[in-house]
User: Which sequence fits this backbone?
């Protein structure tokens, strides 16, 4: 089984892989094996790609390995949800893998957000401007303003981060309580042994 097809691109060969081929590579990797490297691709580059597929499948399931639609329209809210995760401290690679997107695309979104804010994530209209003025068109107002949506998503990301921290703290408290209970039990056992010794004297 070979990749779906390949095309020449700027900087070398741009390889497209079929869903079945990706699954085969992931299965071989989990067995401790490597598939044959396609012609024209460096071995390290190919192995790194397979490791990325493995992480992607672990994070999002096998469906995430399906070929992406070339012209998927991302909403500003969807983009900001991933941008907010990066701004909250997650790595680009971690967020990109969980989202099933390329790191380069996520870099673009973060860069646009830092330069122009939430509005920079709104899809720009392509082509010539329409002859009919926008004022004549029926405009459906959004339920939330961009700033309100931005704040809502930011708070959601912050809430998830705080919940993760609280979960860690709870685990630490539980471990401390277990250790303290074990210490008390050991202390009681030692004191009971000492009392038994005194009684026998």
Assistant:
């Amino acid at each position: 089984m070979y990749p779906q097809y390949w095309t020449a691109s700027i900087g070398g060969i741009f390889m497209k892989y079929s869903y079945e081929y990706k699954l085969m590579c992931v299965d071989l990797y989990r067995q401790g094996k490597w598939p044959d490297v396609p012609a024209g691709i460096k071995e390290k580059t190919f192995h790194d790609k397979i490791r990325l597929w493995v992480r992607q499948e672990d994070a999002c399931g096998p469906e995430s390995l399906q070929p992406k639609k070339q012209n998927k329209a991302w909403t500003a809210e969807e983009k900001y949800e991933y941008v907010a995760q990066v701004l909250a401290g997650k790595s680009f690679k971690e967020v990109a893998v969980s989202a099933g997107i390329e790191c380069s695309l996520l870099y673009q979104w973060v860069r646009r957000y830092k330069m122009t804010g939430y509005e920079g994530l709104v899809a720009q209209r392509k082509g010539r401007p329409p002859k009919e003025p926008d004022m004549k068109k029926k405009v459906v107002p959004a339920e939330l303003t961009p700033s309100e949506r931005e704040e809502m998503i930011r708070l959601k990301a912050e809430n998830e981060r705080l919940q993760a921290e609280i979960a860690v703290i709870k685990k630490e408290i539980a471990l401390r309580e277990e250790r303290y209970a074990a210490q008390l039990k050991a202390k009681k056992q030692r004191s009971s042994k000492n009392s038994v010794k005194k009684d026998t004297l």
User: Anything to note?
Assistant: The chain has two domains: 1-67, 70-124+148-194. Residues 70 and 125 are 17 Å apart (CA to CA).
